[in-house]
Amino acid sequence: MSDAPPIERENLLGLTRPELEAFVRELGSEPFRARQLWSWMYKRGEGRFESMTDLAKAFRAQLVERAEIRVPEIVTSQQSADGTRKWLLRADAKQAFEMVFIPEPDRGTLCISSQVGCALDCSFCSTAQQGFNRNLTTAEIVGQVWLANRELGTSGLPVERAVTNVVLMGMGEPLANFRNVVPALRIFTDDLGFDLSRRRVTLSTSGLVPQIYKLAEEVNVALAVSLHAPDDELRNELVPINRLHPIAELLEACWHYLDEQNGRSITFEYVMLDGVNDSPAQARTLAKLLKGHPAKINLIPFNPFPGTRYKRSAAPAIQRFKEELLERGLIATVRRTRGDDIDAACGQLAGRVIDRTTVRLGNKLIGVAVQP
Ligand code: SAH
Description:
Blueprint: E1 10-11, H1 17-26, H2 32-43, H3 57-66, E2 67-68, E3 74-79, E4 85-90, E5 96-104, E6 107-111, E7 115-117, H4 126-130, E8 132-135, H5 138-153, E9 165-168, H6 178-189, E10 201-205, H7 209-218, E11 222-226, H8 232-238, H9 247-261, E12 266-272, H10 280-290, E13 295-301, H11 315-327, E14 331-334
Helix pairs in contact: 1-2, 5-6, 7-9, 10-11
Bound molecules: S-adenosyl-L-homocysteine.
């Protein structure tokens, strides 16, 4: 028996192309092998090195010994009456995060998480109540898409790759985990990666303004912004990060993002809370704010969760709100609620989170877990 410590296997999932090239070189192979590996892992969803038949046998054997393709472990999986599926994925022995697949006739959207919990403390969001524990790694972020394609592929769906659209609208604030999210976005859109067009990858943010500017320099994906209120006073209450970055600053960052990215428009998410932000007057203020800009407004009927003080706006109120916007030349749609019978709808993802934040955003604006 040898006394040498066991070699720790490198998880190849989530490595950037240069990182994978460096690893391949370390094994003594040509860097172009990294391209082949990427294509096997992401395009074909292959998880076993032994099956990567155009790689030299000796190289495959090296990979088996030194590397792995490790995705998050599934804790539970649920299916809604409407076909929506939700998986609880292991973050560690005690904690878990969630991803949701929403099938539609012409596409399959996977809603993925970027953090275990969230520190931003939006008052109407169930994830906020759990607190924040940690950022997901790039491997855990791309691993969600990899896993969903595998799970859905084996469950009898006719398409080879079930996930055609990815939205970062699960647990967490993606721009607060910038360092791990950006490489994941590259893997989603790279033609040797998942090869999704930039319009099919959407990052949703509560409004971390400096990171929106940084993102504009890094990758081109569609941007969705959680606006939820037409004025600072109300937004301070609903989305507390607004106290740091008020609406005017946020919108400036949005238009800058579009300029830099040649983007078509920004989607503004607006949760419909009964008697809070759903009056026709508020719709008109919102219209004024966005008029003349490439903006789409997505009205999200509030999804309740235990302990919340909010109620969903009545259907006629949502309709009236939408009409006020349409009459003023804006594009507005109402998001169809999916998967609410399994708590998979927007804002209902709770996972299992042990809060580690000492100071939450609710009262004081310090201690936000934003990674450089
Ligand atoms: N942190 C990011 C992404 C996660 S949430 C963000 O804030 O954008 C995805 C969307 O669901 C956001 O617009 C969020 O505000 C909304 N949401 C949160 N809780 C909700 C609830 N209970 N009902 C409906 N939508 C909710």
